[in-house]
Amino acid sequence: MTRNLPLTNLLSALVVLALAGLTFAQEAQYPEIPDAKAMYKTLPNHLELAPNATAPTTPALTQWNGGFTDLKGKKVTYTMIGTNPATTNVTTTVPVYIIPIKMVYGLKNGNRTFDPVKATVSNGLTVVNNVLASPIFKKGVNFTQGSTNLGTTQYIDAFQRGNFWSYVKTHTGYHVLLGTPTVLPEQTITVSALLGSVMANPFGSGVVGTYDIFSFDSKLQTIMKNFTQLNHGVLPIFVTYDVYLTEGGCCIGGYHSANGVQPGGQTYAHATYVDSPGAFSENVSALSHEIGEWMDDPFVDNAVNCTDNGILEVGDPLEGLSNYGTYPYTYNGFTYNLQSLVFIGYFGAPKTTSVHSWLAFQNDEAKVCPGQ
User: Fold this and answer.
1) N or C terminus of the chain with fewer C-beta within 10 Å?
2) What is the per-residue pLDDT across 155-177, written as a single tens digit (0 to 9) for each?
3) What is this structure's pTM?
4) 20 in any annotated domain
5) Does residue 6 or residue 219 have the better pLDDT?
6) How many angstroms separate the CA atoms of 85 and 62, rounded?
7) 253-271 pLDDT per residue, tens
8) 171 lies in a domain?
9) How far apart are CA 367 and CA 345, in angstroms?
10) Is residue 367 one of the residues assigned to a domain?
11) What is the 3-state secondary structure (H, E, C) of the chain?
12) What's the domain range around 305?
């Protein structure tokens, strides 16, 4: 049987096809990123930017110092966020500020704007609101690893509980939580054609912006100075949308750093949110990576004796795994991607410190770090 399509339906279909063709043509004009590599970074501690110790300040972040003798007999010491899980049974809540960053590219480098405040994702939320609704900040997901229930809590808290499970299995009140974030006014960075451009997404569909990491960090330093709320007692998190940072090559999904050392340094983090399915840094995966690393190496100076990783960075060893080391968790109808993170046993600490003596949260790491 043959049906004649109503004229209005035919016109609508033609419009959709035309728009789709236009979008494809627009995206096809953007160049490919040469030798793209998915990666995260840390920037060295900005010692010269340490907060003025003589000025009136709020209390520093809650932090504790620990250590272990690694497999080579060398002493490793570290500073982490929260209280000592071996001796305390309390909840630490860290104040958080989110600063959305709008990235604007002009006629010479792509003519696009990537705005996390206006861009919406599949559940209808804006990028920023979907970050707020994620298991990074919400306590709605039950994390049971193997046969052990680590709690219905935030993701990074569940990771840290698993990291020190030999203590917190009896210290049931031990948690390190991120407070409900305060979202500060969006900041705008206009990208010079010398420092970044719009390119085809090398890991998925659509396009992404690129920008030099050192220029970006310089902008963040100015922003932090302009907001009096951003002191060394809080965690500022800068969020971009569909933008990868660069350092010679592409593509950096996020980083964390600090201005000054413990206990009074100012820590901060950046993560991008990419909405292309299956892409590197998909939704909150970069944020899970960076906040996990901030938790266990807040001042980017916890030195370890590994040949692949000179500091205690818990996300980097797994970012090269399938799907960039991420695992799907559905919460309130949306599937968030959370990256697995290694436990301290990976760096040569006693494996029995962590849940099931695993080396990583998802039991997806079988060997200790090279050098151990």
Assistant:
1) N
2) 999 999 999 999 999 999 999 99
3) 0.92
4) no
5) 219
6) 13
7) 999 999 999 999 999 999 9
8) yes
9) 9
10) no
11) CCCCCCHHHHHHHHHHHHHHHHHHHHHHCCCCCCCCCCEEEECCCCHHHCCCCCCCCCCCCCEEEEEEECCCCCEEEEEEECCCCCCCCCEEEECEEEEEEEEEECCCCCCEEECCCCCECCCCCEHHHHHHCCCCCCCCEEEEECCEEEEEECHHHHHHHHHCHHHHCCCCCCEEEECCCEECCCEEEEECCCCCCEEECCCCCCEEEEEEHHHHHHHHHHHHHHCCCCCCCCEEEEEEECEEEEECEEEEEEEEEEECCCCCCEEEEEEEEECCCCCCCECCHHHHHHHHHHHHCCCCCCECCCCCCCECCCCHHHCCCHHHHEEEEEECCEEEEEECCECHHHHCCCHHHCHHHCCECCCCCCCCCCCC
12) 35-357
Structure tokens at 65: 């110092």
Q: Tell me how far apart the alpha carbons of residues 338 and 227 are, in angstroms, rounded to a whole number.
A: 30
Distance CA 194, CA 202 (A): 20
Look at residue 54 and tell me if it is in a domain.
yes
